[in-house]
Structures are given as structure tokens and as C-alpha cells.
Amino acid sequence: DCGHVTVSRDDVQQCEACGGKHIRQEEDVLDTWFSSGLWPFSTMGWPEKTPELDYFYPTDVLVTGYDIIFFWVARMVCMAMAEMGEIPFHTVYIHGLIRDAQGRKMSKSLGNGIDPLEIVEKYGADALRFTLCTGNSPGNDSRFSDEKVSASRNFCNKIWNASRYVQMNLTIEQGGLPERLTLEDKWILSRYNTLVKEVTENLDKFELGVAADKLYSFIWDLYCDWYIELTKPRLQNREDDQAHEGAQRVLAYVLSGVMQLLHPFMPFITETIWQALPRQNGEEAVSVSRSRWPEYKEELRFEQEERQMDKLMEAIRAIRNRRSEMNVPPSKKAKLMFAGENTQLFLDAAPLLERLAYGSQVTAVEP
Fold first, then answer.
1. What is the pLDDT of residues 67-97, one digit of tens each?
2. Going by C-beta distance under 8 Å and a sequence separation of 6 or more, which residues neighbour residue 81?
């Protein structure tokens, strides 16, 4: 009756000021999501017509978990329509929750929360970011474990070691592709060209995990395990200047482009590597984030060379597997004999086969 407002954690039975027992609980209460619902426009000067509000409203994409669609997303839409007359964003990307290794939701009561700063300190920010982007489908929960982050850190190490090797062998100051391309050059460029197209399409569709997986496979399997190995003889051979420089140019060209594609997932390591590589075609951007996004180029599409290289790789894998099954050490060279319609391809690639398949000689035989 006296008008005093009592604030208490416990149920109030009487007024703390006058002692009166004719009291009532406040009826006009807003939950914590009320101010959150105003966020798209209230943070930029509303209700005033500010330059920030005019420029940033409406925005484009909202990223959120599925557990607060009603609490937050719906209220932002309703309040924005009421106060601004148009929706605050055209796309809502709904992701799953990060659960612990046992699949439980992280909570204070369970004490199973993960401090991201500790993970960053132990494994690095890039490794943590990449882990959260891979291995899950949109809208589905994913389990967090140190093993997954450790695997992403190993991927970072793979990228770093490969880039250091490339940089140590670079003598060119300006990037750009060579005029003469070998079979392996055309193969990696064609595969990279396809990667650019697919990753761009995946990101446009918010398929972040798919894009990250494709980048992982390309960098680890194709670029590091195969192409770098294929170019080592050309890098070591200083007598053939054209072949030596050509290998450098393709290595740098592909690595530079892949760092741009990987930058949204791993911003720190990609920036460091990209800055150390020769600029492509007069590129003057001061950072990866301000460089021109790679584009698919029809002139870098080499389907025939891809098929030929795939046959060579398949043969090398088969020979290696057979040697492993028979416990033949790499030091023991074997004569490689080929028959069939692709024999000439294998004969032309004899130096490659002799080095990567541990062959002493490559010959053709009648089928």
C-alpha cells in the first residue's frame, strides 16, 4: 500500500518498509529474451534514424542453434516486423549443439563444459575452428573430444610442413603459371580447378562441413602426398631451367589458391603462408581476406590428363600394396612389366613409376 518495491530471492509475505501484508507480485515482467529480440535494430541507434541502422538493417544471415529458435529467432522477426516493417534477415542457418564425448549437453551442473581458451592454448585456434566445422551435418549435434582437435592440429602441421618445403624451393618472385605444363601439372591444376568450383558452391549453400572435408582431402592426399612427391625430381634438377621453374610456379599457384579457400576455416595459418608466397598475376591485396576469391577457369580443365594420372596412381598403389603384402623392402627394386591399352602411358611415365613404385625398369609385354 505504501508503494515500496521489495526485491527478494524468497517469497515475500509482507512489505519490508511498512510491514503491510496487502502486497502483490509485479505483473509487468520481461524475460531475458525481450532485449535479445530487439538486437537487430536496437544496437544501431533505434529508435533514431542513424546511418548505422540505415546501412546494416536488414542484415543477411543469422547463425544459431536449434534450441533457441522460438526464444530468440521468432522474437527478433516479430519485433522487427512490428518496429521496422521488414524482416531482419533473409536466411537463418541452424546448427546443432556441441556435446561432450559421451553425448551429453554441456552444463554447469554436470561440470562437463569446455573452456575454448584452454583448447586454443593447447592445440591452436585454427585446429579448434576446423574441428567444429568438420564431421557433422547441418542441424545435427556433434560430440567434442580432444582426439578430434588433435587430428585437426596434425592437419595444420601437414599444411605447415608442406608450405615450408615449397617456400624453401622457391626462387621465383612473381607468381603465375608456366607456359609448358607436364602431365602431373595439368592433373593437379584440373583437380584444384574443380575444388574451387565445388567449395564455392558448398559455401554458397552453407555446406561448411562438406567444403572443409573436400579441402582436407585435396591438401592432404592430392597436394601433399602426391603432387609434392611428383615434383621433387624437377625441383632437384637444376639443369632443366624450364622444368625446374615450372614445378615451382604450379606448386606456388595451387598452394596460394588453396590457402584462400581454406582461410574461412583456418584464418591464422593460411594468412601466414599466403603472405610468404609470390603474388599471383599482380595481386596486391594486403591480406587473404581482402584478396580476390579464386574462380573456376575453363582453361584449367584437363579431363584426359586427370584420367591418365588416375591410372598411374592406381598402378602405383597396386604395386605398393603387393610389395607390402609380400614384405618386399623399398630398397629392393623390381622390374615393372605392363600390358594392355594403357601400356604407352606407363612407358612414358617410367621415371615416375621407377621412383614411386620402387621399380628398376619399366617395360611392355604382350598381353
1. 899 999 999 999 999 999 999 999 999 988 8
2. 87
Q: Are 220 and 262 in contact (CB under 8 A)?
A: no
CA dist list (Å): 272 to 112, 121, 327:
34, 19, 42
Strands (E), 39-133: 61-65, 91-95, 98-99
Return the residue matching grid coordinates 585454427: 126
Q: Give first-to-last CA distance, the chain, whole Å.
A: 106
Residue 316 and residue 279: Cα distance in Å, rounded?
Answer: 34
Q: Cell numbers of 135, please? A: 564431421
What stretch of H or E contains 337?
strand 334-338
Centroid of chain to Cα 44: 32
Q: Which grid coordinates are listed for 343? A: 601400356
Partners of 92 in beta bridges: 62
Stated pTM of the model: 0.84
